[in-house]
Amino acid sequence: MTTIAGPAAPIGSASDANGVGGPGDLAGAPVVGGPGLPQRRHLVTELPGPRSRELLARRDAAVARGVSIALPVFVTAAGGGILVDVDGNSLIDLGSGIAVTTVGNSAPRVVDNVIAQVQAFTHTCFMITPYEGYVAVCEQLARLTPGDHDKRSALFNSGAEAVENAVKIARIHTRRQAVIVFDHAYHGRTNLTMALTAKNHPYKNGFGPFAPEIYRVPLSYPFRDGLTGPEAAARAIGIIESQVGAANVAAVLIEPVQGEGGFVVPAEGFLPALADWSRANGAVFIADEVQTGFARTGAMFACEHEAVIPDLVATAKGMAGGLPLSAVTGRAEIMESAHPGGLGGTYGGNPLACAAALGAIETIERDGLVARARTIGERVLPRLRSVAERVPAIGEVRGRGAMLAVEIVDPGTGEPDAAATGRVARRCHEQGVVVLTCGTDGNVLRLLPPLAIGDDLLDDGIAVLTDALETLAP
Ligand code: PMP
Prior knowledge:
By secondary structure, this protein is of the alpha/beta class. Helix content is 35%, strand content 16%.
């Protein structure tokens, strides 16, 4: 249930418990988030409210505009499926900070582990004097990632860093250079990962020159290409063989369900065919599971849906409950190709992030969140599909588990309609429901709810979204 009350008390009034003051003034903000927060949508101001607008002005004067914001409400606490802002509004979170807070914000096991770790020590640098948490995370990665072969892992900070290191490892292992990537791919914003990423604006435009030896081939995009998985794979492989040459390929790098590029689920058979081709041709098959990994798609890793066993897996986001941590995990013989000192970084596998990851993994397993992701998909997909029957602007509803999307098109031409997509997202935002958009053409609404969200809150959020989608009906 939503409550929409009158305007909040003015800033500085007696009830101004969360007053936004000068630099560094965070006093008075509610600091206890987690699942104990009331799990209901509740708006007391328009969005953004006055305190958020005040912080936005400070942000404009201090933060580079290149770091853009989807919904300018400043958060002060979060937990379960709720974000509380500085004006006292409670919003439904259907984005999980881009697929990060899979276990919910401030999940208890994450909080407990991090508190214990921060009191023990905060950093030594694993490459200087190691600690157990790093090793324990690598053991968990070996246990959880697809395949029961001998594995090794290396830990980093961001998804981009993991992908970049996976490419380094594939290159040194194969002594080859070419990297195959796909249309609509997103792999990050560093120099190498910009080159691996497909979409020019905003990710690449003006930021070149880009790294060489990256070759892009068509993805399987069933809604747009109508091909079966094997047909789409044959098309991609044909291009690789004729334009790159199999013997030059160090790695085939793919998101098993594409994230930023539009939540594209490849047709069945596409991923296995590429993995098989890679193995047959001595190329390393790298799954970028940064967004799909750790229960998001209703499997611990999205490759499992088609029993694909990647040589290397890049992970990040959902693995550490909101702390920055990423990893490359893979076949020991490939991982061990990199010489001592060739991998690493000052903060990679920071002790707090490792403690958080161990708490997040325990939560995923003990709370049955892989199954929860599946039930979220089963609950939400039929509702979205029933709206799609009435709204021709909905080109396709798709997704796996709790990684769900609605592709919006012009019903007359079938062309992507980014403007209508933006209108639906804004309508949701105004009602206090955080949905995200994605897609090379900006015409896909995506849902990534925390798996800790309750059914009532999820239903309320989806009702707001379906109402917003209905506005596109003729
Ligand atoms: N790969 C994929 C599939 C992603 O979704 C992302 C982030 N959206 C990245 C890589 C980059 O991760 P990060 O932003 O942590 O660098």
